Amino acid sequence: MKFGGTSVANLDRIRNVARHVKREVDAGNQVAVVVSAMAGKTNELVDLCRQASRLHDAREYDAIVSSGEQVSAGLLAIVLQEMGVDARSWLGWQIALHTDSSHGAARITEIDGDRLIERLEMKQVAVVAGFQGISPDNRIATLGRGGSDTSAVAVAAAIKADRCDIYTDVDGVYTTDPRIVPKARRLGRISFEEMLEMASLGAKVLQVRSVELAMVHGVRTFVRSSFDDPDAPQVGVDNLPPGTLICDEDEIVEQQVVTGIAFSKDEAQISIRNVPDRPGVAATVFGPLSDANINVDMIVQNISPDGSTTDITFTVPQTDYDRAMKVLEDGRAELKFGVLEGATDVVKVSVIGVGMRSHAGVAAQCFRGLAEKGINIRAITTSEIKISVLIDSAYTELAVRTLHSLYGLDG
Amino acid sequence: MKFGGTSVANLDRIRNVARHVKREVDAGNQVAVVVSAMAGKTNELVDLCRQASRLHDAREYDAIVSSGEQVSAGLLAIVLQEMGVDARSWLGWQIALHTDSSHGAARITEIDGDRLIERLEMKQVAVVAGFQGISPDNRIATLGRGGSDTSAVAVAAAIKADRCDIYTDVDGVYTTDPRIVPKARRLGRISFEEMLEMASLGAKVLQVRSVELAMVHGVRTFVRSSFDDPDAPQVGVDNLPPGTLICDEDEIVEQQVVTGIAFSKDEAQISIRNVPDRPGVAATVFGPLSDANINVDMIVQNISPDGSTTDITFTVPQTDYDRAMKVLEDGRAELKFGVLEGATDVVKVSVIGVGMRSHAGVAAQCFRGLAEKGINIRAITTSEIKISVLIDSAYTELAVRTLHSLYGLDG
């Protein structure tokens, strides 16, 4: 079970979390709980680091910031004990949850589940401080943004949990953002691959890293609402409470062709026109961007009628747009391009579904549907289970609603 | 170097601490710094534990409360780095500073100084989170009240430091409390034994436990003011900056007969009169008090003229007075005493000095001096290096001033 910062924001909420945990214990389950820091706490600690020095050491930042989860884990353990539930807090170094040396954004390398399993078998709840591990040089290392989701999935994998329940401020994964499409439906189940695409392409319910980890280790991950009554019955459709199970494709009986529509506004488009078309031109364009740590996404290359010049269009994260334009402008002498253009009022809309593998025509249906609404497509990328199109951001709602209806997702 | 909570209360003060540290580093010293939590932080965390449960688990309390020192140690390391001083924070489990299992009031059992020494030799400042260690079951254990002073002395012993400098809100150890006796003088040096008596008998400048530890390990401990200008010259009398060195007797050249006058108002007197005088009567009185964890201090027993009954007078800490009276009242049937009396408006005044060992008449001088002022002595205890008398608290100032003058301590 994983609870985020708003779920442990104060002692009343921590008591509510404890009731959720007690319910599972009373049902005979062995439970590990991963918690974030109390809401606002991490920002407060980050601010202290910034005040101490603008260029603060990442190891010390980690020692400081990780203390937030240390407090919330200890408090939840105390509250559980007061409710008569045996519980013990666990810090990253106590488990131990090993990471690499990338302090501030460390990756988990290995978790030893033995100590936790030993306690779980004694019917003791393990309350694990999220977001933290221990680096090879015996230092606290934090996992970076969304780290607690990742901790939860990693702990679940290490203790071979039947399920990893992520309690969050939404009650599951939807076919698309319900704020844009009121007819959006909550999915009962979604495959790891689809969820990974959904998360990568704009759905914010889970961090991409945690979904990756769940997929690699086959951790069945259940997204559910932290606002649910802790004492409500826990059996509904598929023997699960309300929420969305992220699981292996095999566990999904009635697979739809398209599972969801995602969109991301954090996109910027860059076009370079009339570049002399010679071998290695792409490397000349994208090498410097890569050197500047700018992630290039959708790439479209057209050739001119006479074959002498080419146009290259691609997208970058909106936050990197100015930097990317500068890198390219600096390389103008070498690239010898005619025009450098860009746009930040664009959105990437994606159609996702593992059913595409076995159904032809899904992409054509998408392009036709958008064309019928007069929506111009600036760029396209596809993978085995998704189609992404770049369009003017003014058309976001129209495009998402159109595709949502088109693929029969409306509830 | 050890700095308390008010010295690291905010980032400006932490920067001031860093200047003290940098001065020592610039002078060519290898430095370990022990810090408390930012002022107010520990209370805030203790409050959270209490809100979570009135009967909170000591292990979880320790996990939560120790996070305060974790933050201040990290911040000081960052600030030192910003000043160009290589520094690294150390938590109790990283050193490791081993303790027993008495969570909340753990005692240090062993410190491994090797890891710290290795870094110190690389000219890296070790910033140690005070107040915390690691228990035999791999849990954070806090050292209880005054724990950071104890941490500092223990670290100093482990790294074989030349000196342990305790920066505090007073500028040294005085012959007595300057608020009571304006003529009180700061002592340049005081022996471990004397300091232990001073601390045990009411002087609050250092915790008793830290002095004990300093004495056992021969750690020369220097009490000095945290308000000193960090950039002031560091050489004065005896090649030391202003402050008091607590050291071995041998290091003190001109030893006075009496070094200081301490007093403690946390005393209550209890008298049991007309107890039938039979063998084992003392055990019958003090056994139940000991069982109730009540510390009995000065004990005076008189016999009646006919030898059939006895009067027993003793003191207990004021906070245990009501409990002690109840324990005795409950034992009335067995003890068969006549009258049970008590008083809480009493004070214990103590004359301390290793010179007493070789000078006779110090006690007689004390009794005579008090008698001349009309001060009645309720009880007396003595040791090799101290004389304590119990008197009415109304005479505290008069008694302390009288003795301070009598033994030539006035400045």
Automatic annotation (TrEMBL), chains A, B:
Pathway(s) per entry: Amino-acid biosynthesis; L-methionine biosynthesis via de novo pathway; L-homoserine from L-aspartate: step 1/3; Amino-acid biosynthesis; L-lysine biosynthesis via DAP pathway; (S)-tetrahydrodipicolinate from L-aspartate: step 1/4; Amino-acid biosynthesis; L-threonine biosynthesis; L-threonine from L-aspartate: step 1/5
Highest taxon in the source lineage: Bacteria
Its EC number(s): 2.7.2.4
Keyword Transmembrane: no
InterPro entries: AceGlu_kinase-like_sf, ACT-like_dom_sf, ACT_Aspartokinase, ACT_dom, AKii-LysC-BS, Asp/Glu/Uridylate_kinase, Asp_kin_monofn, Asp_kinase
Residue positions binding ATP: 2-5, 168-169, 174, 179, 204-205
One GO CC term, this protein: cytosol
Keyword ATP-binding: yes
SUPFAM superfamilies in the record: ACT-like, Carbamate kinase-like
GO MF, any single term: ATP binding
Entry binding sites for substrate: 42, 69
Limits of the ACT domain: 270-354
Keywords for the protein's UniProt record, in alphabetical order: Amino-acid biosynthesis, ATP-binding, Kinase, Lysine biosynthesis, Nucleotide-binding, Transferase
Reaction catalyzed: L-aspartate + ATP = 4-phospho-L-aspartate + ADP
One GO BP: homoserine biosynthetic process
Family: Belongs to the aspartokinase family.
Protein name, entry field: Aspartokinase
Source organism of this protein record: Breoghania corrubedonensis
